[in-house]
């Protein structure tokens, strides 16, 4: 069986990779731990988490896309912003979806192990997830460290980031990645979310992103995306049709970052 990549990226903080397709994070406090995102539901996720900590676990989804809540059925309930509850239900959280995800993402993100990853899709369907609400400003106290919810719509209506002040980390989900896909063409909403994050940049040193490796990046990516969206909104720059191996849509690329809009996948 293919082993799940797990990397300690900070004190009591682990990247729990869904075989390089999605980044999940385990944040361990003194009294309980938090799993940030659940991947697509590929591989023995609960067992892998239990090898890292025996503390009570709270599970928090950064947004409702199937590659981030597809494993939610492994757990009794998962916290998700209510604006993404309906968004999540647009996508089938089943093994057909999981196999499609492996087929479309593994050749790009982990081509040497596509067949082994496909073999880890569950043989039986996972239960449908039960969501609990969270809201901007909510704080999850893990004991000695906290995670504060910051609502950051743009990638999806209910996208959030989680701020770990004690360890100066910001977990961004798909709000800040090397490659950003936006719902529709609303650069204004995304720009406003980025500015909310950057207004608090003195409280964190690094960001932990939802896709691509290394999973921990410099926070300056937020400022660069602000600049990119400023110019897209003003008309100084434009997204153009340039499909890649994963997405079909319009993209604006600059300095190793890219913003997609009107995407089909």
Describe the structure.
The protein is built from 7 helices and 17 strands. With 265 residues, it is of the alpha+beta class. It has a single domain (6-177, 203-219), classed as Metallo-beta-lactamase, Chain A (4-Layer Sandwich). The radius of gyration is 17 Å and the shape is globular. The mean pLDDT is 95.
Assign the structural class, choosing from mainly alpha, mainly beta, alpha/beta, alpha+beta, or little secondary structure.
Answer: alpha+beta
CATH superfamily: Ribonuclease Z/Hydroxyacylglutathione hydrolase-like
In the CATH scheme, the class would be Alpha Beta
Strand segment count: 17
CATH architecture label: 4-Layer Sandwich
| Helix run count | 7
Domains (count): 1
- In whole angstroms, how far apart are the ends? 29 Å
Which sheet architecture does the biggest sheet show?
6 strands, mixed
The portion of residues forming beta strands comes to 25-35%
Helical proportion, percent range: 10-25%
- The largest sheet has its strands arranged as 8-9-10-11-13-14
């Amino acid at each position: 069986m293919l082993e799940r990549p797990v990397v300690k990226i900070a004190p009591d903080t682990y990247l729990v990779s869904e075989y390089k397709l999605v980044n999940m994070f385990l944040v361990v406090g003194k009294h309980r731990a938090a799993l940030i995102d659940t991947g697509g539901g590929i591989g023995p996720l609960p067992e892998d988490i239990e090898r890292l900590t025996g503390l009570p676990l709270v599970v928090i989804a950064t947004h409702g896309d199937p590659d981030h809540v597809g494993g939610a059925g492994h757990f009794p309930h998962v916290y998700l912003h209510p604006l993404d509850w309906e968004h999540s239900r647009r996508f089938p959280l089943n093994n057909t979806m999981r196999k499609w995800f492996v087929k479309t993402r593994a050749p790009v993100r982990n081509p040497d192990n596509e067949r082994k990853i496909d073999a880890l899709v569950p043989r039986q369907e996972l239960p449908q997830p039960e969501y609990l609400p969270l809201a901007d400003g909510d704080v999850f106290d893990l004991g000695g460290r906290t995670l504060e919810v910051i609502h950051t719509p743009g990638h999806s209506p209910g996208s959030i980031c989680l701020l770990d002040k004690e360890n100066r980390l910001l977990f961004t989900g798909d709000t800040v990645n090397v490659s950003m896909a936006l719902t529709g063409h609303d650069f204004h909403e995304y720009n406003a979310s980025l500015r909310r994050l950057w207004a608090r940049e003195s409280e964190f040193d690094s960001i932990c992103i939802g896709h691509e490796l290394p999973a921990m990046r410099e926070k300056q990516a937020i400022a660069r995306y602000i600049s990119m969206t400023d110019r897209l909104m003003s008309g100084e720059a434009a997204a153009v049709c340039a499909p890649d191996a994963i997405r079909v849509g319009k993209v604006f690329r600059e300095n190793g970052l890219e913003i997609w809009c009107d995407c089909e996948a």
